[in-house]
UniProtKB/TrEMBL annotation:
Signal peptide: none annotated. Keywords: DNA-binding, Sigma factor, Transcription, Transcription regulation. Residues 396-449 are annotated as: Disordered. It holds the Pfam family Sigma70_r4. SUPFAM superfamilies: Sigma2 domain of RNA polymerase sigma factors, Sigma3 and sigma4 domains of RNA polymerase sigma factors. InterPro entries: RNA_pol_sigma-70_dom (IPR014284), RNA_pol_sigma70 (IPR000943), RNA_pol_sigma70_r2 (IPR007627), RNA_pol_sigma70_r4 (IPR007630), RNA_pol_sigma_r2 (IPR013325), RNA_pol_sigma_r3/r4-like (IPR013324), Sigma-70_Factor (IPR050813), WH-like_DNA-bd_sf (IPR036388). It comes from Polyangium sorediatum. This is RNA polymerase sigma factor. Sigma factors are initiation factors that promote the attachment of RNA polymerase to specific initiation sites and are then released. It comes from the Bacteria. Residues 513-526, 690-716 form the RNA polymerase sigma-70 domain. The keyword Glycosyltransferase does not apply.
Length: 749
């Protein structure tokens, strides 16, 4: 049965469209006024029964909330059911009266107040497919950017990723303004109305479906294998040259693609490719290569193995050593002459290179080169072997030679290592040594022996799941509470958590701590994931994983709390980059940088300065060594104010003077004054006795004790002033002139 692209009807039963609920609530209120025996619940029950007869199940509580105004929008079916109830209760006159009242209130049926706010995503997708068919050189991503520009003109700001998700059909409801923006884009292509768009979709349904099939993604492994076979057949070591050739050939066919993307496909770094792109590249490679090689690109005969060794990356140090020996053994030979001879040998092998490229290799300035240069160096001496030694080849062991240098030393954590092609590139050692095959165990490296290394090795056995398996496990956990399904879902994404956490290693945190926080976010994502949205679990989980990691960074960056929230997070992670941009434009130390940053982040300059200081400096332990290991710590190097000789000398002199003055004054004080000095003036703050307590002990009032304390302080002050003015002898004479009263001794006894 032939497929066709159709526009779903706007009034179909059960459509997820929504319209503003203002007119619906006003009509319900008028219905209640005309029928006083009814209530909101009675109207809600009537509406529920009417919808049930149409095959639409609706909850009574939801209808009551829509009638009361707790829900802003309502489905069109509910609005039509209410109008039917009004017509049955009061006839056509009631409908006319309600519509007249709505029109007077500005809620007429033809006004924007009753236009759908949200529409079904299925209604909009054919419009997007029509636009993509009319613009075959554009992608869904490009359409999402165009839609964002159209929506921003209407004052609506939406994320490009959200729009692309809508265009992929991953959402059930979309805003009506997105459909209006699509119509505006189609109007440029001559589509004047929705009827015109529907007519075009019906007329070109077969072509649109064919275009959509060409946009479907598939695995890029076949392109990688064909590119390997093409390079072996044409003895072309450079992926760059093949990528340039493919880019030119694709442009001739009307397919525009960037050179970096083509090179990723050739190198095997791209995981997916569009179906149409794959077929075009495959036809180009098949037309330029021998049929036998294309049919069996991974076949390993003697000749192809030799070519693969020629294209493999090998150590350059042995070549430099052979070159030095050759120059020393042949008088008159120079490195330049030797480079010219090797270039001729390379041409004889069927390859092409320049003496200017070979000479730095002979001089020891390169770490690696191609195998055909090594073989040409060995071929200069007729008795020398012409095969490159296996221990000098980068990459896999014998039988799994590489033909391309790896893009990075870390393989993707979310891919199956067993699915790698036999000709796929292997990571090369940074020091130029040949890498041996990794054992099946945890390995013998120090990193593998650490707890975190053992953890990374242990999670390698958990493989990624496909979409159907993820959704099945999520439904089992959601409906049945199957914790085994949830555990399987978590285990399959543990490697993905490590990959995300590695992006935040530049903030000085332990990777193991970041992975722990990311795993907590993964558990939260499993608990909250809704499989009904038909999303890949990884797409949803990455937000929770990053949220937990970011929260950990903000909390652990400093022991002094700096707050949390979207503003703090955005400022913390972008401030350094934005400040560097402004400093490049305005110069370092410009006074207006903080003001510009405050405007950009919508905050104050004080907040920017505080956050800048927080980002620039980390907490430092006082127990770490200041300079070298085993040396003094920062705490030991801090200045101690109490060890200052001048301060100690001054304190000792001051204490001696105070002790001498107090000793002389003590003899002249009466018992009550001595008690005040001991309990009040010379006591600690915690041990100080109140004036009321002293008054009770001496049998006097609190006011009298205050007067005695003032007199005692006056005597002490006079004594100290005398010491400063005349010395200790004058103080003794002053105090001897005031003998104690005898009755005071009896009171204090």
């Amino acid at each position: 049965m032939e497929k066709s692209v159709t526009m779903p009807a706007a009034g179909m039963a059960g459509t997820p469209e929504r319209i503003p609920g203002a007119a619906f609530r006003a009509a319900a209120a008028l219905h209640l006024q005309r029928n006083t025996h009814l209530s909101r619940e009675a109207i809600a029950r009537d509406l529920r029964d009417r919808l049930a007869r149409r095959g639409i199940r609706y909850h009574l509580r939801t209808l009551k909330r829509q009638i009361s105004g707790a829900v802003a929008t309502v489905p069109p079916e509910v609005d039509r059911a209410l109008h039917e109830a009004i017509a049955e209760a009061g006839g056509e006159d009631a409908i006319v009266a309600v519509e007249r009242a709505l029109a007077e209130a500005g809620l007429a049926a033809a006004s924007a107040a009753t236009a759908p706010t949200y529409i079904a995503c299925e209604r909009m997708l054919p419009l997007a497919q029509l636009w993509l068919y009319l613009h075959p050189e554009r992608s869904k991503r490009a359409l999402a950017f165009r839609l964002r520009e159209e929506l921003e003109r209407s004052g609506i700001r939406l994320n490009v990723d959200s729009l692309q998700s809508i265009l992929a059909g991953k959402q059930r409801l979309v805003r009506r303004e997105i459909q209006d923006a699509l119509f505006a884009l189609l109007h440029v292509d001559g589509v004047t109305s929705s009827a015109d768009a529907e007519a075009r979709i019906d007329a070109m349904s077969r072509e649109i479906l064919g275009a959509q099939e060409g946009r479907v993604f598939e695995s890029a492994r076949r392109i990688h294998e064909l590119a390997k076979a093409w390079k072996v057949e044409h003895k072309e070591p450079s992926s760059r040259r093949l990528a340039l050739l493919l880019k030119e050939r694709l442009a001739e066919r009307g397919i525009v693609i960037g050179l970096p993307h083509v090179q990723k496909l050739v190198d095997g770094r791209a995981r997916r490719v569009r179906h149409a792109m794959s077929r075009a590249i495959e036809s180009i490679l098949r037309g330029d290569a021998a049929p036998a090689v294309i049919e069996a690109p991974a076949a390993k005969d003697a000749s192809s193995t030799g070519v693969e060794l020629d294209l493999a990356w090998v150590k350059a140090a042995p070549i430099a050593e052979l070159a030095r020996k050759h120059v020393a053994e042949n008088p008159g030979m120079t490195m330049r002459k030797l480079a010219i001879r090797i270039s001729r040998e390379v041409e004889a092998f069927g390859y092409a290179t320049s003496p200017n490229t070979i000479q730095p290799i002979l001089g020891g300035h390169k770490k690696k080169t191609r195998g055909f240069i090594y073989r040409a160096m060995l071929h200069l001496d007729g008795a020398a072997p012409t095969r490159v030694p296996e221990e000098h080849v980068f990459g896999a062991p014998r039988g799994e030679r590489t033909t391309e240098p790896p893009p990075s030393s870390d393989p993707p954590l979310d891919t199956d290592p067993r699915s790698r092609s036999r000709l796929a590139p292997k990571a090369s050692s940074p020091d130029g040594a040949a890498r041996k095959p990794r054992p099946e165990g945890l390995g013998s490296s120090p990193a593998a022996q650490s707890p975190f290394g053992a953890y990374r090795a242990a999670i390698q056995r958990y493989q990624a799941l496909d979409r159907e398996t993820e959704l099945e496990l999520a439904w089992r956990y959601r409906r049945e509470g199957d914790h085994a399904a949830a555990n399987t879902l978590v285990e399959s994404h543990l490697q993905f958590v490590v990959k995300v956490a590695a992006q935040y290693r530049g903030y000085g945190m332990q990777l193991s701590d970041l992975v722990e926080e990311g795993n907590l976010g993964l558990l939260e994502a499993v608990r909250r994931f809704e499989p009904s949205r038909n999303l890949r679990f990884k797409t949803y989980a990455i937000y929770w994983i990053r949220a937990y990691i970011v929260d950990h960074l903000l909390r652990e960056w400093s022991i002094v709390g700096g707050g949390t929230g979207p503003l703090v997070s955005r400022t913390f992670f972008r401030l350094r980059r934005e400040r560097a941009k402004l400093e490049m434009q305005l110069g370092e130390g410009d006074a207006s940088i903080d003001a510009l940053l405050a405007t950009r982040f919508q905050t104050t300059e004080d907040t920017i300065r505080s956050m800048s200081q927080r980002v620039a400096y980390r907490d430092t332990s006082l127990d770490v060594q200041a300079r070298t290991e085993g040396g003094p710590t920062l705490l030991e190097m801090l200045r101690d104010p109490s060890s200052d000789p001048e301060h100690l000398t001054a304190s000792a002199e001051r204490d001696a003077i105070v002790r001498g003055v107090v000793d002389h004054v003590w003899k002249a004080l009466d018992p009550r004054e001595r008690l005040i000095v001991e309990e009040r003036l010379l006591s600690d703050d915690d041990d100080e006795v109140s004036l009321a307590d002293l008054g009770r002990r001496l049998g006097v009032s609190r006011e009298r004790m205050r007067q005695l304390e003032a007199r005692t302080k006056s005597k002490l002050r006079s004594a100290f002033e005398a010491v400063v003015r005349e010395g200790n002898e004058a103080a003794e004479g002053l105090l001897a002139a005031t003998p104690p009263e005898p009755e005071h001794e009896a009171l204090c006894a």
